[in-house]
Structures are given as structure tokens and as C-alpha cells.
Amino acid sequence: MLPDFTLGHSGTARCDMPQGELPCRRRARQKLARAPAFRLTAIKISLSRIVARADCSRRRSMEQTLGGASGEVTVGECLAGLETLSRHSLKAVSQAGAFSREIAGQSVRVEQALAVTRESVGEDTAERTAAALGAEFTAAVETAMATLTAELERISARIDARAEEAGRIVQEIGRIGATIRMLSLNATIEAARAGEHGLGFAVVASEVRQLADLTRGSAERAAASIDFADVRQQMQQLRGAVSTTLGTLTDRAQQTSDRIRTVFTQVGGELATIAANNKAIGEALGAVADSVTRAEARASAAQDLAAGAAEAVRARQPAALPALMARAGLAAHPPGYDRLDDVLRRGRLRVAIEPSFVGLSFRRAPGAALAGLDVDYAEAFARWLGVECSFVETPWDLCTERLDVAEPGGAPADVVWSALPPNAGFGPVAYSRPYTHLNFVLARRAGDARIRGVGDLSGLTVGIINDPSAFATLEAAGLRWGENRQVPGGRVSLGNLLAFTDQGRIHDALAQGVVDAFAVDHPIMHWAASGEGSRWRGKIEVLPGNLAESPWYYAAAVARHPASFRLLDAIDAFLGWFEGTAERREIEQRWQGGVTVGRRSHRDEPGGLAGADDLAHAWQAAHGAEPPRTVSGPRFTASGPSERLSAAG
Predict the structure, then answer these.
(1) pTM exceeding the 0.85 threshold for the entire prediction
(2) Structural domains in the chain, sorted by start
(3) Distances from the Cα of 318 to the Cα of 309, 322, 411, 437, 598, angstroms
(4) Which H/E stretch holds residue 521?
(5) Residue 278 pLDDT more than 80?
(6) CA-CA to 397 of 20 to 30 Å: which in 2, 86, 317, 554?
(7) Is residue 40 over pLDDT 60?
(8) End-to-end CA distance of the chain
């Protein structure tokens, strides 16, 4: 089992402080150092084994079965079956390789983000946030300023009080001096009146007057000495200087706090990028595991079929070969087999469909019947044929494989009716005319004003369905990510592009923040964002517009084989009639808000995609006659299917 790949809350930032590296960082760095390389090595070894096993099985099968003389036709079918299993195995290996490359790219981006984090954090291992540091520093400065100001005011008040008291005393002394002088003047006057008898008293009065003058002079000099006006002025200037200095210190402290906050904000963004990369790596690893498991299953089935076929040929028991093919999930059809006749004979249409496509094919509640746009169309076609509709529930990217290979104990599907945009990447299938047109839209979390369109996606994580058409559309829209970053014409560089194979996780991934936005087919988001009973209603929203140059479309698909011609021809006849019905308009209104008009079909796609006309030529070559065609019209009545469908000749 591969080791868990997680990062600590601080990533693996280097710490050289005396107290040593934090344990969580040390453990995270050790995991990061060994996890990607270990996993990629294990993946490469597994893929090499798978490819070698598939090739060995095919070679051994061809060497052993071609030597047999009996059962020539059935042996050929076995070889064709082996080719089919090998093709699906190689497809799974190819997908696993693509996911492995994406994992490697994600690992590089993790390392880059960690390098930026180390550069930003440096040797600072403070655990307090920038806001707390700034608040503490500012509070300390404000406290010091308040204390100093209060102390200065207290001292100033005491000086003012003392000066005021001294002033009162000096004033009192001045008044006493003035009184004495007045008394001396009165005594002098009285001495003058007394004549000779008052001469002695006049001398005393003169001395008293001189003393009074000295007292008043001293009082005036004392008053001048204890005048603290200049001291008060200097104290006020000191208070002003202190206030200015502390204000400057506060400003500098705030600037330092802002710088610290900026650094930590950058670190937070970088760590968020690391977290997003980890989520992307986790998704990619899950996809790789699924692809490897599928490839191993196909390779194992091919090996078992090769061994069983070789044994049957050696024992000259060709009749055992059909059972061997059925055990491998392959159908062995007799000469002249026709898929539509088989459907009508068994009274059941087997439809491969993804069961977790919200809005297209999903369950509103556990155990409920499938519902959605594709379900309504497939059931309408089955009713038109006069048969029951049986859904073969399959992961979306494996639906076309179900036309060739069934799950153990099952049977291959007759048709894929599951949001299939015609593309050469789906292999040898033939497509119907479009049954619906739609926009390829961008969805975001409700109220996320950061994202108003494609131009706002720079550096963000975007989700898409693992669909070749989705990748091609985003690339054409100018979006670039790890795999195509060097392709010319890029206008927006994404942080990550995350492809989802598990369609049941699309809406939760957006609502819970695994991705910032999701580029997806409109019906997949329409009901989820606005439908009654949707648990995502109010959590996600669809932006208007179309990311593609013209509306997308879905088509049904059958195996590219003459035996499937009449079934595909019947589908086209049904769709031609159904297009103008009220039921079809109701389906479109319910699941994507109305009918979207488009003109494209599989004929407009690159790769020479096949349709009913191509299968008609193959049918004619196989049967030597013109193929019977289906007549368009209303659904079958109780009289049976012979009204419009003739049996194959």
C-alpha cells in the first residue's frame, strides 16, 4: 500500500532557529521527499507489468490458437476479443500514464510552492500571527505613551501648584512690606508734628521705611525667581516632543506590522496553493489507481481467454470458445447476428449510463430510480421501440467499453446514452444524430465575486470532467495548465486543472472548495444549482455564456459493427420524430432550462467519426444487399414493431 501524502500546517519550511526544526515540518518534509518518487516508481512498475502481460497474452494466444484447424470462425472471434481486451487495457494504461504525468507536474509545483514559502518565512519561527504581533506592539507603545504623558502632567501640575503657593506667599510678604511702609510714613508725619520731641521717633520711622523697602524689593525678586512660566513652556514643549516621537514609533510599528502581515498573507496563499496541489495529487492518484486496476483486469481477462482458447483448440473443442468469451465479458455472435433484432427478441434495451451524473442520470435519493435528461431520452426511445429500458450503470469514461466488454456476470450494452460528445478518443463506435444541444459553462461557489469569467481564473484550481472534448475546449479558450503550458495562444495560466473521473464528486468538490470553479456541461449544473430538492441549491451558481465557440451536443453511440447498423438507424429515426414533440420540449426545459439550438454533429468533428450511413455500407458489404431502413414516426402501438421495422435479412 502506498504511503499517505499529506503536508503539515506549515508545509516543510526550513527552520534554523536554536530551538530546532518543528516536528510537524520535519515529518512533512520527510513525507514529501519520499512520497511522489515512491508512488511514481510504483506506478511505472505496475504499468510496465500490465503492458508486458497484455502483450505476452496476445502473442501466446496467437501462437497457440492459429495452429488449430477446427472452429476457424470462433477462433477468429476469440482473437478479435483478445484485441478488444488489449485495446481497452492499453487505453487504461494510457490514462494512467497521463495521470502519472499530472502527478509529476503537481509534485514539481508543490516543491516550488514550498521553496517560495521557505524564502518568505526565512528563519522566523514565531507562532503568533502578524495581527497579534502588531496589536501587542501598538498596545505597548500606546501604554508607554500614556504613562509618560500622565507622569509629565503630574510633575507639571505639582510644579504649578508649588509656584502658585510660593506666589501667594510672596504676595503676602509684599502686602506686609507695603503696610509697614505706610505705617512708617504715618510715623514720620506724626514725628514732624511733635517737633524736637519727635526727632528720635523720626529716626526710627526712617529705619522702618528702609526695612519696608528692602522687604518689598526682596519679595519682588523672590516673585521673579519663582516664576515657572518658562519651565511650564518647556514642559509643554517636552510633552509635544514626546508625543511626536511616540507617534513616529507607533507609525513605524504599524508599518512593521503591515510588512509582517503581508509576509504571512503571502505564506498563507502559498500554503493554500500547497493544499490545492495536495488535493489535486490525491484526485490524480485515485484516477491512476482506477486506471491501473482496470488495466490489470483487462490484461488478466485476456490472459485467461488466451489460455482457455489454447486449451480448447488443443482438445479440439471449439464449442467451448463462446463460453470462454462470455466469461471474459465478450459476446460471441453467430453469423448474421443483428443487434436490433436481438433487442426486440429479448424485449429489453440495455443502455450503458453513468449513474452519478447529476442532471443527466442520477438518483435524487438512495434507492430511487434513475432520473435526468439522458434517462428521459433513453426511456422514451425504449418506449418507441416497444421494449423495456434496462440501464447498465457504468463510470462515464468506461461506457463505450461496455459496448464490447461486460462486467463479470453481465452482458455488453446495446447503446451508450450518457452525455457522450462524439470524439475519436472514445474508440471504434458509431454515433447517432444529436439528441440535445447545450452550452459548456463555468460554475462557481455562490457569491464568489472573484470569478466573473474565464479571465479571472489565473492561478486558481479549476475542475473538469475527464473528457477529451472538455480539455480541447478549455485549451481553445486560451487556458493553460501543466500539460499544455507551452502551447501557443495561452491567455490564462491556471494554478491547477483537476480532471474528475468520479462524476458524483463534481458538485461537492466545487461547493467545498476542492476547486475554485468548474467548467462543465450546462445540464450537469443547471438542476444542481436551481432544482427543487437539490442539496447544492444556493451553494453553487452557473455563470452565463458559453466557453465553447458554439453549442455542444450529445449523441447516442453503438459499437462500430455492421450488426449495430439497424439499431443506430432506429435511434436516428426516433430522434427525427421526437425533436418536434411536446415531451422533448418538456425534457429540455426540466433539465437545462429550455431548448438550446445547435447545428453541429459528429460529421463536423475530426477523426472521421462513423454514423449510420457508414454502418449501412458495412452492412451492405456483409450481407450483399441494401440494408432495411427504419421509418420515422410515432411510437409503436400494441400491434408490435413490424409497423416500421423489418427483420434483418
Answers:
(1) no
(2) 130-263 (1.10.287.950), 440-550 (3.40.190.10)
(3) 8, 8, 21, 48, 51
(4) strand 517-521
(5) no
(6) 2
(7) no
(8) 56
